[in-house]
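Sanity check. The docking grid for magnesium ion depends on where the pocket ends up, so I'm generating a full predicted complex first rather than guessing from homology. Inputs follow.
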Amino acid sequence: MTHDLDHTHDAGLRSWVPGADDHPDFPIQNLPLGIVSPDGGVPRAGVAIGRHILDLPALLATNLLSGEAAAAVEAVGETLNPLLALGAGPRRALRRDLSALLREGQAERRTIEPLLHEAAACRLHLPAAIGDYTDFYVGIHHAENIGRQFRPDNPLLPNYKHVPIGYHGRASSIRPSGAPVRRPSGQTKGPDADTIHFGPSQRLDYELELGVWVGPGNALGEPIAIGEAEAHIAGYCLLNDWSARDIQSWEYQPLGPFLSKNFVTTISPWIVTPEALLPFRIPQPPRPQGDPKPLAYLTDEADQRGGAFDLRLDVFLLTPGLREAGLPPHRVAVSNTRSMYWTAAQMLAHHASGGCNLRPGDLLGTGTISGPERDACGSLIEATLGGREPLQLASGEERRFLEDGDEVLLQAHGVREGFASIGFGECRGVIVGASG
Ligand SMILES: O=C(O)/C=C/C(=O)CC(=O)CC(=O)O
Ligand SMILES: [Ca+2]
Ligand SMILES: [Mg+2]
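Predicted complex below; grid placement will be based on this.
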């Protein structure tokens, strides 16, 4: 990696903000950036610290931020795009200053305390205006599992281990955590049916993914070298690529997913920075024997050494039956980003390799991240083997696919001995009935 662990990562670091040290997602070692409306006010930049959000424009007005950090906040309006565009320098300066200002023993505590909002009283928005969204397919276990269902004779197509496969998604329907997910209607054809039908999807599913936020980006026609790719990544979020499997299986050939995946995509609203995730970087897991070496434009020594992540991923399902019985959400899966066949840098370098320009605030999805086991599946179509083996819930309910009123919650956490654990915050959505 291009930078190192520093004092902001120390496990012993404590914050004066009440509750921050014990927060499962947002201790002082994380400091993710977002756009919030405190108490219905105008959207502005904020940083999550425990159960609170620090108002960044208000902090700027105190003159407590140093030059480069102040420039980062000055750039921001109602979206973080201008800050993402500045790249790593100002973002790191801001992290250093925030870490110092929120640290236990900070003499300016009395000045900063009034600038904190209770997160529960804030509305969280999309952190950036997303110009373009692309979804990859780097979860190799998912690709094998779902490939087996869509193409039993040919699950993993021959290009998979050479090309980071992706499809262009839809930016307009990306929503922050908590927004309702309306069941889409669409065209379907049962496997043995001879008629084609239009109506509400009967095989509604979720997909457990990470989102990758693009930073500075490239000019049209000027590819990003793999060794430079990290410098163009501004941060990460959780991403749920809601998918209507019945619509998908009928529409997807030969051009790929279209309406089956563009009705809504949910993301967690905090941008977790590459700096915060530094302790959880790992070498790229070695490719299985016999797999081809990636081409040179996808190969970088530093990326191989530390371009992958060790992040625990969880999927929970809360149904109306569980809710009414006062039972906890059902844990459907525990997975890990180690199952990514390609790194974020490889995704980004590949995307730009033909000259396509990536712009600040563009979003890349990794694709569904499933582990090899049944209880590590990042989608229901995998977990229930296409609906053949439904989930059995403590409420007595069964689930093959999502029903109206079901809520899906995704989580991601970095957990490593000797370091503070950090999380991504919430990525949740409740299914509401189809319109009309
Ligand atoms: O293999 C297929 O035809 C379809 C795959 C998907 O539905 C997955 C997709 O959106 C990419 C991913 O999430 O991995
Ligand atoms: Ca997907
Ligand atoms: Mg989608």
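Relevant for the grid: Residues 88-101 form the longest helix (14 residues).
Also worth noting: The mean pLDDT is 97.
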